[in-house]
């Protein structure tokens, strides 16, 4: 039960973090607005709430001495995924802070990035946080006020990561993956297709090897003929 709860929290955190990154990339673009800044604020706060819940659940389980070896290995894997997700969130928050300083909404003369993207981002945030019809009452200088809050929240995330390392020491290099990269995307059909692809690749490789041998022979013959001609020219002269 606890394992399923941790996986559900981690899945939600991944989705919200991905949503936050998507919206951060639109700062300074043609779709930038006060609504976007407010959506960014609510999305990152949602991510931090999920991060705290993840941390509390995983910390309690990993400190429990009665957990079996197999379960502990699984929780350690989830812990590594959670730590990586939190690092990504911190990076994106710092990026949002830098872009917010570069493209303040209260300076209309500041030229924004022409990304070619247009339209609102409320739909993306709503899908990630399972909220419908997100409506915000943006303040006049929400970007200016929010940058100060963002700096404090970045420090809080950094402190959280430091406390996590102090409470639970799970080196990433000691955790083994349960499956190969991209294994969840594979199926019986894709495996069959990949096998056919491997056969065709091997055939192409053998064909390429023969071509290389023939090319080498032709090049050697041309080189010998050139040498012979050069010697003949020297003797005739």
TrEMBL record:
UniProt keyword terms in alphabetical order: Membrane, Signal transduction inhibitor, Transmembrane, Transmembrane helix
Superkingdom classification of source: Eukaryota
Transmembrane intervals: 213-234
UniProt key word rRNA processing: no
Keyword Hydrolase attached: no
GO BP of this protein: negative regulation of signal transduction
Signal sequence range: none
Family of the protein in this entry: Belongs to the RGS7BP/RGS9BP family.
Name the record gives this protein: R9BP protein
Organism: Chunga burmeisteri (Black-legged seriema)
